[in-house]
Fold this sequence. Notes:
This protein has about 170 residues and is an alpha/beta fold. It has helices at about 30-45, 60-70, 85-90, 120-145, 150, 155-160, 165-170, and strands at about 5-10, 15-25, 45-55, 75-85, 95-100, 105.
Amino acid sequence: xxxRIVDIIDxxxxxxxxxxxxxxxxxxIQPEDIVKKLMTAESEGRRIDVRINSVGGEVYAALAIFNAxxxxxxDITIYIDCLAASAASVIAGCGRRVxxxxxxxxxxxxxxxxxxxxxxxxxxxxxxxxxxxxxxxxIYAQRTGQSTEQHVSYDVGLRQGTGNPAxxxxx
Length: 171
């Protein structure tokens, strides 16, 4: 299936990468498509707007997009048009300018996963989730200037209804 991800605007040095949908193998946002389009736009010297409206998806796919955006030499602005939730919030934290619509939302939470298998297999899965949690908390902490510990405790606050003002610091 061909994904229409980049719209090159004729006669300008601009393009837009749309991240609308689910991220990863089961979604419409595929990291290999995004990276190819990003590299093409970058090689042509284009300014790139990345527009996000996503409930999230697979964290490794989001990290691949995050890393590509962070490493790019292009002039990139991230727009959260409505929702950057879960794995999509990681992409929004790539270190580029972020503009959130007045009614837009950024939602972060602790790593979630499922495991089945032997006790050892489940322990390995838990260890992997803990490593991912540390990576994501570090990304959010670097972006917001808050401590990693504040982000580790965020999910508890979300479930208790206290929320996290970190999304205001992304702007």
